[in-house]
Design brief:
The protein is mainly beta and about 260 residues long. It contains two helices and 18 strands.
Length: about 260
Amino acid sequence: MGLNTLEKLQLDRQIARITEDLRRVERMLQGQPIDTVRIADLAVTSAKIESLVAGKVDADVLSAIVALLGNVTVGNALDGDGTILVKNASNVTVVTINKDGILVEGGVIEVRNQDENVILDEFGLTSTNVFSGGSATGTGIQALTTSYVDVTGVTITFDTERTQRVLLFGQMIGLTNATASANQAQGQILIDGGSPIGGGLICPGRVFNDLSAANTQAFVQEIRALTVGSHTLKLQAKESVAAGVTQVVRSGCTVGYVILGN
């Protein structure tokens, strides 16, 4: 007895579904992508996947030899505070990162700047790299008048990345052959044209009736908070009175700075 029309139609549909399922299995065996696969919970107990692209992966435990990640978020309002643990080969936690901060136990801490210099290690700040600075020294000798003038070559410009405390310092060597000890070389070190640091420099004149030229040295320093931007530190000098010849020894004059931090 043959199939009626309805039975034949149903059989054709079943054969079509089986045929499509077989084609999917064949494509899977050939390594071709499968459009949709539904797997029951816990049906796969172990699997090796060479490459996996997913919009979202939920897992209680996710194990990987290498994980290349763009952004990592641990913790949320639903699951609570997140924690990242770094363990050694003995399964001992050596680094903990959580909401309270970073805890390193028995490991090495190094923080490097853009030049790959270590600025912080397990012993603290490495000052040779943290505290940047510079200085400028002139050459030759410069005659002075009773008005302040810039000492040639004893000027330096530097930048601060934010508001920072900066140690400013400078020294001056004055030279005079005046016959009266009242004359002296005076100096001031200005930062951005403001008030002199350290209250100014004074190089006393020669001793009365000492017929030789005499030079003396003065040094000042001061810590100031400087705002972000470019700053200029320079030495100016003058003689106190117009008597004899008063000069500064530029090769012995220096201005400098050390950026200390916030």
